[in-house]
Design a protein that fits this description.
8 strands, about 270 residues, three-stranded antiparallel β-sheet
Amino acid sequence: MMRRPLTELTLVAMCGALALLAGCADGATSARTASVGASREPRPAATRTWTITLSPAPGDLALAQIAFRGSARGARVTSTSLQVAVSGPFGDDYLASAAVRLPGSPRALVLLVNRPSPLLDPVDVRLRVTARRTLGTPVVSRLSDPFARPATAPRPSLCDLQLHGGALSASQLSALRSRGEPLAGFAGAGAVAQAYDAVCSLPFASSFEQDVTRPAGSSPPVPTPTPPVGKLPGEGCVPRPGYACPGAVESSPPAASAAGRRRTAAGAH
C-alpha cells in the first residue's frame, strides 16, 4: 500500500521539475527575443543633413553663417565634420566655405558669389549641408547683396565674431571646400574673409567688390602705368602754374651766373 503514494509523490516531483525547466526555457527565450528586438531599434544617425538656399543678385554675393550650439567637448568644424555641396544647377557662380578659428562655439561661413553671366544662371542656389551631430545643433543666419545694402541698415545678426573692432582676416579661417572659378585676387579663406567684412561694414579691399561685379570670363582691368617722374620737361615732369620742374630750377642759377660774369667782363673793358 505504501508504494502507490510514493510513486505518486515521485511523479508529482518530476512534473514540478519539468514545469520549472519549461518556465526557465520560456524566460530565456523571451529574454533573447527582447534583446533581438532592442538591437533592431534604429539608432540615431551620426550626422544630420539639411538644405540652405542662397539667392544673391547678379554681381553681388550672399554669406551664410552656420553656428553650432551644445557641441561635444573638443568638437571642431573640419572638412570631414562639415560638408557643403551644391544641390542642383550652379552656372558661373563661385562657392567657398571656411571654418572660423576664433574663440566661441564651432561655426563656419559659406560664401556664394553670383557672377554676371550671359548664361541662364539659377536664381536660387540650394546647398546641401551635412554635419556631425557632435558639433551640436546648427543655427543658420544669412545675408544677401551687401553692395546694394543701405549704409543705415541694421547690423546683420551673423556679424557676431569676436574681432574686437577689427576686420576678419584669412588667417582666422580654415578653408573647407570651394566650387567654381575663384575670384581673380581672392580665393578660399581670403574671399570668405573679405565677404564677411563687406557684409558687416568692416574695412575690405575695393578690388574685392570689383572682382565680384566683374562678368564671368572677363579679365581684370590692366592698371594704368604711372608716368615716370623726371626733373626736366619731357622726362615726365609737367610744369604748372606755381610749380617749376626741379631740373629747370637747378639749371637757372648757373646760367644767371654766367650772364653776370659776361656783363662784368664787358664792363671791365
